Model the fold of this input.
Amino acid sequence: MSTPSTPPSAHSSSDPSFPSGDRPTVTYIYRWDLDKTYLQTDFDSVRALLRTAIERAIDKRNVPGAATLLRELRQSTRPGETTRVCFVSGSPRQMRRVLTEKLRLDGIEFDEFILKPNLRNLLTGRFRALREQVGYKLPALLAGRAGVAHSAREICFGDDAESDAFIYSLYGDLLRGRVPRTLLEEILQRVGTYPDDAARTVALFESVYSRTQDDAAKASIAFAEDSPFRDEIVGRIFIHLDRRSPPRRFDRYGVRLVPIYNYFQAALVLHEDGRLAADAVVRVAVEMVDRHAYSLESLRNSLQDLLRRGRLSVETVRSLGAAIAEGQGEADLLPALGSLPGTRDLLRSLARSLRDLGPTAGAVPPRLSGRDAPPIDYLKALEEDLPRKRH
Amino acid sequence: MDAMGGDLGPEEVVKAAAALSIERRSGERPLHLLLVGDAPRLSALLYEIRHDAERIAIHHAKDAVAMDESPRVALDAKPDASIAVAARLCAEGRADALVSAGNTGASVLACQRYFRRLEGVRRCALAAVYPTEMRRGEKDDPFSLLLDVGATLDVTADDLCTFAVMGAGYASRVSKNARPKVALLSNGAEAGKGPKEVAEAYARLSQMSGINFIGNVEGVDIPRGSADVIVCSGFVGNVVLKMLEGVSETVVRLASYAYKEKLMWRAGLAMLSGGIGRLKELTDWKQYGGAPLLGFDRVMIKAHGRSQSHAIQNAVKVAAKTVATGMVQEIERALREIPRVDPPVSA
Done:
């Protein structure tokens, strides 16, 4: 694997993200859901559910690009940075062996792996907890947060099948102090969290929040003014549109949350955010082409979709295209390893089309900015976005 | 997809593209849709609905031809109208087929300007499928093909022969009817019946071995399905097509009237509702998927101006099938075998 080249706003001595002088150590935490986010899982019928339950690790299929993106994120660190990869999944604990084996086969190293105690919930008669996700994932995230440096920044990955957008956004806003304790209690009560779980969640929140603020504020000076990580502890939330939900559905969660159709899109946004280098983006695309038969059209359409939604700047696309198309020899960004014949040509074609994007005036909106966004109305989101959780 | 064409605006075209993008086509290549039109507006529409962005691209076109505009004047004044841009993109190979529910004249004219006419084709033909009593082909297809239905109003005998060959090529590939029965529409079955060009075409088609020419048919034979491909001038075909549509709509209106008029009739209609529904489905133009424009090196499917999402989806599926079955290549091959009389004309 080649050495990652420089992300657009990172690495170099003239890096605008970092003021000169001492850099505080920043840990990046990548939090992933498993089913429908990392793994292609079908829960839509009893038969599919049973098949998922008895499937061997080697037979489990990844969402295209997920494994490569995760490996690249793990490796994309700058001096003074560390990374953590954490999984919080609604899969039952009994699947730990097969799931961790699957991650081992994919070459994914992780620091945390949390599964849901479904058997215990069943045996203790806590049937609501079998389906309910907020009361399970939120305390799991907060507990995970308690064990890391308070200045750590997070990037979360989930999907549109359950409540990931709601949970990750709430988690991020809790850490930033935007959600008062009373509102958290009301949310937990409304989603039907059992009182002891709710009390534990609130206690975790208070403990984590009080310790986070000072260090987070200090760390924010390490980031460029326009960095999504400057003011946010949860800098990005990616929601994989497994069900192809309309992107509009997620507007309520603000620009921090990016609905994505595939991990090429996530890689592009992370490249623009300065978290991934151009060659890492290419490697995600290579996996999708080589292993999942993605076409040039699909990649190009994915990219255009981000431009149309104002999630990516035209300049980033053009510079990425130039970086790939013009790379030669040692500087070549197209990795030969793992590429099937034709992949290189396909990516070069993609690069050329990115570089020569043509006139976009009137066709592409300005990039979305998160500044001055209204606060998320969680109670409304609960009513409209999580209808099954109403009580 | 000319996203700005049609009476119902881009909303229905975008809905159709979105639905097609998430449709699973077992055993077939996934469809990629290229929407041509006002990009900000199309993007905003797409943003609201379920779709697969991996399979949809938008190409900006700043203008559009309205349904009531004069085709030639509009296309001359608006070279960047969505239909013109879509035809150019298709000609450049950015798309395999073009679908439009917009202004028919402008759609045909745009194709004439940007597509290559197949060798031996003087005038193009718009072909429409319609339901018949008899079925045909390996798929027991209940549809016949009528062409031309409006692209070329005045025709020569040569044009009618060309239409016959093109119609047969379409039926053999798309309807999987290996040897379709081809007929000329006239006012009598005898060889000399009809205007001069029809009589002359009759004589020449009778001599062509590569085509299963069964002679003339009359209007009454159209719904019966005596022929699989019926050939006529664009003027006659358009009148016939509109009449078939009118009859279908009148039958539905009469049934609706009967339903309100008497309790006994209402009961009778209720008992027949399954059959009536099936009949309505069969005679519903929304099911047919639009009319292919034949005679060019590219596929163009003209959907009805009033098309809603479902009809446009069917038009796109017909377009995809037409491309996948190699219809253009089949027509090109068959055209090489026609003896020529008329001199070529410019578009």
